[in-house]
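Lecture 7 notes: from sequence to structure.
We start with the chain below.
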Amino acid sequence: MKLVITLSLLLISLEVQCHQLPGHNDDQASQGDKTLLEHPHLSSEEQRQDSSSYLKIGPSNSDFAFTFYRNIASGVGSRNIFFSPISISAAFALLTLGAKSETQSQIHKGLAFNLSVTEENEIHKGFRHLIHALHRPDNKAQVKMGNALFIEQSLKFLPKFLEDVKTFYEAEGFLTNFTIPRAAKRQINDYVQNKTQGKIAHALEDLDPSTILVLVNYIFFKAYWQHPFDTHMIREKDFFVDANTTVKASLMYRKGYYKYLHDEDLSCWVVEIPYKGDATSFFILPDEGKLEHVEGALVKESLSKWIASFKTE
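Predicted structure tokens for the same chain:
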């Protein structure tokens, strides 16, 4: 259960990320995604550079997503995992705008970026393009991702840093009095609740009065299945969490044509269920007893292989 829930969201992010598949090149992307590339505040040359950078950061973001998943999956037991890797990457990439030397290098390494392959400026331009792509008003899948910095009011930040986080990451900055934790916590929680349309009401439970900076990242995702499930077909059935645990769960049913395959190397079944718009989800069902094998062997190349091998029935 853990793997299926996590990867459905993880692969939505990777689908938007558009990491390069065999035969995919920058020219094809720039010609086939003209709407996605339009940015009202950038020149044509800046848009072209952002588009190229967007494709260059894809492999690193994908590597980070799968590595991060494996790291946290190894320590949670049978609990579910639900996260957005692209949100984590964007939030920490933002911090490198204000970091230097060893700190900056460690963040880049943690995010799987190699500066000999992708220059720092390309990383930020790539994320700017990605965030703009996610926020397209014509996208039928509603995705809203953002970052905010809550800064201790007694500190002085370079104006260039605040300008850059706004330019590249659409991030907002707020002065906060952390010496009054209750008021600071309310300020941050109210902000997150507003940005997530009330879905997250208590992002922070406690706040240390010695805090000098809080980095907030939020993501809101709402989409409709391309082929909706009939609510009258929902049935309560047994769901097998693991070999020793069975729970009752509401299961959806629908007859239709979906892309699917069995990955012999990973020992799992994969089915793609598309949303309206540009988003899609991949659900992975490990063969009996093969959950840990799938978790350990899953890499970004797995996605490329699935897309090339899918059959529809």
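Points to note: Confidence is low (pLDDT under 50) at residues 1-37. Residues 100 and 106 are 10 Å apart (CA to CA).
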